[in-house]
Specification:
Strand content: 25-35%
Number of helices: 11
Radius of gyration: 23 Å
Number of strands: 12
Protein name: Sigma factor regulator C-terminal domain-containing protein
InterPro entries: Sigma_reg_C_dom
Distance between the termini: 77 Å
Structural class: alpha+beta
């Protein structure tokens, strides 16, 4: 009798566990692989999404735990490209929808401090205010690193941008290109899309490597580059990588739709519009995120091509 009861309990547990596994298959699983990632496709998708929409943010660490049927708790740590600040974000994926915890925790790293006055960080520095920015920057230690979003008077191709940096910001590093998309109606919600010229950084899962993927998404992974592609011009390589990221993310509809409509960093429609615009006009840069030392700021601000700038970060590095 005891054996019968024990067997019944074991069978019930097996059925329950098997049933849960079966039910989980009907819901988005961030730990599952896909056509590119061996596992944790959510992390790779998040990386691509960040590359396309975040000028100064790298996924430094993450944790994913299944908490129920179709339910997962996710903790992500992002850091700025200068690695001077980290932000932790918690969220829950519950049956194909993601809700984020709006309470974020930030901290500085090492011996750097972050200039965190939001009003100053968000301030648009118009051309007639650039002198004031330059004057105030002279009070900072000469080793300080500045991060700015710069806007140009006219759109630049990738080659034109490279020429601009040679003469106006030769010691700067470009963190991100802001890419022109379709012209928007006056009341249409704007969206920002672009990419980093620095390629892959931060946490990445193991990726598959097949000739089919290399052909479908050329240069999506920099390690996929063929000998022929390595001979391409910088502009052709960067354009190819940018469009491959867009087409890959476009295929990840379950990931895109984790966010409610209107809250998606980049929707399927916006991706399609961007691809169509780039196919017709090429990659046109209307702005960029750059980092440079405070002593090299004056040369950049004197550029006749500069329309405006946003100061987004000041890292005070005490040597």
């Amino acid at each position: 009798m005891v054996k019968v009861i024990l067997l019944s309990v074991i069978l019930t547990l097996l059925l329950l566990l098997g049933g849960q596994a079966l039910l989980n298959r009907f819901y988005y699983d961030p730990q599952r692989g896909n056509e590119v990632a061996v596992s944790t496709s959510y992390v790779f998708n998040r990386f691509i999404q960040n590359q396309l929409t975040q000028p100064n943010s790298v996924l430094a660490d993450f944790q994913i735990n299944r908490t129920g049927i179709g339910t997962y708790g996710i903790s992500e740590i992002f850091e700025t490209n200068s690695q001077s600040s980290q932000t932790q974000q918690s969220s829950q994926i519950k049956r194909n929808k993601q809700s984020k915890d709006i309470s974020l925790r930030s901290r500085t790293i090492g011996n750097t401090t972050l200039f965190s006055d939001e009003e100053v960080q968000r301030k648009l520095i118009e051309p007639d205010q650039l002198d004031a920015l330059l004057e105030s920057s002279r009070e900072l230690p000469r080793s300080s690193q500045l991060t700015l979003n710069v806007l140009f008077k006219k759109d630049l191709s990738l080659d034109e941008y490279a020429h601009w940096t040679t003469y106006n910001a030769p010691t700067s590093d470009t963190l991100w290109y802001a890419v022109r998309t379709k012209k928007r109606a006056e009341n249409e919600r704007p969206y920002i899309v672009g990419f980093s010229p620095n390629g892959h950084s931060g946490q990445l899962p193991e990726l598959k490597e097949t000739p089919q993927l290399q052909e479908k998404y050329p240069l999506l992974n920099s390690f996929w580059a063929t000998d022929e592609q390595n001979k391409w011009s910088d502009e052709k390589r960067e354009t190819t990588r940018f469009t491959s990221m867009l087409r890959y993310l476009q295929s990840q509809t379950d990931f895109i739709n984790l966010a409610s409509e209107g809250e998606q960093p980049l929707s399927e429609k916006q991706i399609a519009e961007t691809l169509a615009y780039v196919e017709e006009h090429g990659v046109k840069i209307y702005g960029a995120t750059v980092t440079l030392s405070v002593q090299n700021l004056e040369l950049l601000l004197k550029s006749e091509d500069l329309a405006a700038a946003y100061l987004t970060e000041v890292a005070l590095i005490r040597l």
